[in-house]
Amino acid sequence: MKNNDIAIVGFSLGFGVMCFIWGVLWMVMCLDYKEQVSRLEQDLIDYKWQLEQVPYICNNN
What value does the CA radius of gyration of the chain take, rounded to a whole number of Å? Predict the structure, then answer.
């Protein structure tokens, strides 16, 4: 192989590895985001339930 071919293969391999790492980082970020969104949805459900309980609590006094 010529030096030019080695440079092209090296660049291609480097770029492929970089894209793979970038994809893994995006996957980890999306999984963290999904976990955070599910936690916030549960908080929203809890807050809604607490707001629905206010009339019952206030009427008993």
Answer: 26
Compute, in degrees rounded to 10, the torsion defined by CA atoms 19, 21, 26, 32. 170
The average pLDDT across 53-59 equals 79
* CA–CA dist 9, 15 (Å, integer): 10
Question: Structure tokens of 8?
Answer: 């092209």
What phi, psi does 60 have (nearest 5°)? Answer: -80, -10
pTM flag (> 0.70)? no
Q: What gap in Å lies between CA 35 and CA 40, rounded to an integer?
A: 9
In whole angstroms, what is the distance from residue 36 CA to residue 42 CA? 10
At residue 58, what is the residue type? C
